[in-house]
Write a structure and sequence with these properties.
By secondary structure, the protein is of the alpha+beta class. The protein contains 15 helices and 33 strands. Strand 19 (342-345) and strand 20 (348-351) form a beta hairpin. Residues 48-58 and 63-69 have low confidence and may be disordered. Bound molecules: guanosine-5'-diphosphate (GDP). Belongs to the TRAFAC class translation factor GTPase superfamily. Classic translation factor GTPase family. PrfC subfamily.
């Protein structure tokens, strides 16, 4: 197969949802339909086990899921599908933002009883900012849920997107009869199923098919009226609008019953885009360029506690990756030649032979690779767009046993590089500062410092509530600013200076006084 063909058959997407909407269940069913697993239950079982055994329920659950199944590759029809999981909890949203930079499309799962929830909205904003195309799956139709028109209306209003229903439900809860496929003009009859694909599915052709009205009189009457309305009022599917992230195709179903799942998988193959070009500081890079390039969007330390390894997740952006290949880290010009690069075949890690644009590869390393690093075959390139957000919560951190200071520093350095937390070193010295977007991040870090680095650390309150990275076109002006505000300056993990404030007014005063200095709430990997 040619490079062009390999790229054209790749689909790389993330699955996003508010917790409990059914992301884990759907993920598993996608794997089932793609033939990557035979019986559902493995992903769920792992999640349940974590749930039951851990005091750190929320943390372990989050970590557990993301560790166990953060990247999955499967083949479906003629396509190679890469599925990336995202942590559902809002306190880990930074991690999610970064994962979303590595995909070409997103699959949004909505609980039909709850509609659009807070976390869905936040994630969606990120997709919108990047014009990521989104496919929507409205789940749990086997329950008493909200009226479908109501859900569609809410989607449109809250997401600010056009909604193009591809299927329409007949009934719900115990009266759920199936979905009508609007484009194929046929009804797919619901049958409950759990762990396996049954194979025998029933379809009834045509809305005026007397069998539909005969077998499902109540559901049919309502659905018929709704379908007429939707056909009149909803915009037809428009590929360009979808690809620009302005219109989302919508599917109804029940993940736990394997119902409506195959349609979503087909939509991913038929509608979602193959990998596209990506901006780097130097130039735009096309996926079909023969030379390899890729970007690290996630680092996970100690994935396997018995090995204490650290895996950099890299999205291939162009060219062809082959095992044993030499790669250059653009940040420092160093060569690496890993021979243990892994791929993620439905949660098993396997040694990787080759990969193409859109694929995710895992490179075990001991700190050589950082978030945002670009790897190439030699060219100096730096892909842009990996965001770090200014923390909104701050805590000082100290070790209980001063002899463990070294472990604390080492642990924090690694956790900082992994992006689990942001670590700031005050220019004036003293206690290191931790910055987070969500409170749970602190708990995770303290917990991991103890379990992974043997370091008993303690958080201390701090008066800071805001940080802004500072830059200036004029180096000397920046130095003057830093000198004049030395007691409020701290350096982050990559030595970028940040201005710390205890309240918004302070920031405002500084902004007014130092006109040439730019204050940033977001930093991209430099
Ligand atoms: P996640 O937190 O988004 O990963 O959600 P899960 O996949 O763990 O699902 C949350 C709960 O909803 C679990 O108890 C699932 O069994 C249940 N669930 C998922 N899909 C369906 C569905 O289609 N129908 C019903 N009734 N329950 C579902």
């Amino acid at each position: 197969m040619s490079l062009e063909q390999e790229v054209a058959r790749r689909r790389t997407f993330a699955i996003i949802s508010h917790p409990d909407a059914g992301k884990t269940t759907l993920t598993e069913k996608l794997l089932l339909f793609a033939g990557a697993i035979q019986i559902a239950g493995s992903v769920k079982a792992r999640k349940a086990a974590r749930h039951a055994t851990s005091d750190w329920m929320e943390i372990e659950k989050q970590r557990g899921i993301s560790v166990a199944s953060s990247v999955m590759q499967m083949e479906y029809r003629d396509c190679v599908v890469n599925l990336l999981d995202t942590p559902g909890h809002k306190d880990f949203s930074e991690d999610t933002y970064r994962v979303l930079t590595a995909v070409d499309a997103a699959l949004m799962v909505i609980d039909a009883a709850n509609g659009v929830e807070a976390q869905t909205l936040r994630l969606l904003e990120v997709c919108r900012a990047r014009n990521t195309p989104i496919i929507t799956f409205i789940n749990k139709m086997d329950r008493e849920v909200r009226a479908p028109l109501d859900l569609i209306d809410e989607l449109e209003r809250t997401l600010g997107m056009d909604v193009a229903p591809f299927t329409w439900p007949l009934g719900m809860g115990k009266d759920f009869a199936g979905v009508y496929e609007l484009r194929e003009d046929r009804m797919r009859v619901f049958r409950a199923g759990e762990d396996r694909i049954s194979g025998d599915e029933e379809v009834l052709q045509g809305l005026d098919n007397p069998e539909i009205a005969g077998r499902y009189p109540m559901q049919f009457e309502t659905a018929h009226a709704e379908i007429d309305l939707v056909r009149d009022a909803a915009p037809p599917f428009d590929e360009a609008e979808f690809l620009a992230g302005r219109q989302t195709p919508v599917f109804f179903g029940s993940a736990i019953n394997n119902f409506g799942v195959k349609e979503v998988l087909d939509a991913l193959v038929d509608l979602a885009p193959p990998p596209g070009g990506r901006p780097a500081i130097q130039r735009r890079v096309e996926p079909t360029e023969p030379k390899f390039s890729g970007v690290v969007f996630k680092i996970q330390a100690n994935m396997d506690p018995s090995h204490r390894d650290r895996v950099a997740f890299l999205r291939v952006c162009s060219g062809h990756f082959e095992r044993g290949m030499r790669m250059k880290v653009s940040r420092n010009g160093k060569d690496i030649r890993p021979n243990n690069v892994v791929t993620f075949l439905s949660q098993r890690r396997e040694l990787l032979e080759e990969a193409y644009a859109g694929d995710i590869i895992g490179i075990p390393n001991h700190g050589t690779l950082q978030l945002g690093d670009t790897l190439t075959e030699g060219e100096t390139l730096q892909f842009t767009g990996l965001p770090f957000f200014a923390p909104e919560l701050f805590q000082g951190v100290e070790v209980r046993d001063p002899l463990k200071t070294k472990q604390l520093r080492a642990g924090l350095e690694q956790l900082g590089e992994e992006g689990a937390i942001q670590v700031f070193r005050p220019l004036a010295g003293g206690t290191l500062l931790l910055g987070a977007v969500g409170q749970l991040q602190f708990e995770v870090v303290i917990h991991r410092l103890k379990t992974e680095y043997g370091c008993d650390a303690r958080l201390e309150g701090t008066r800071y509530t805001m940080a802004r990275w500072v830059t200036c076109d004029d180096e000397r002006e920046l130095k003057r600013f830093i000198d004049a505000n030395a007691h409020r300056i701290a350096y982050d993990a990559v030595n970028a200076p940040a201005f710390l404030a205890t309240m918004r007014a302070e920031l405002k005063v500084a902004e007014e006084k130092w006109e040439k200095i730019k204050f940033h709430a977001m930093r991209e990997h430099a």
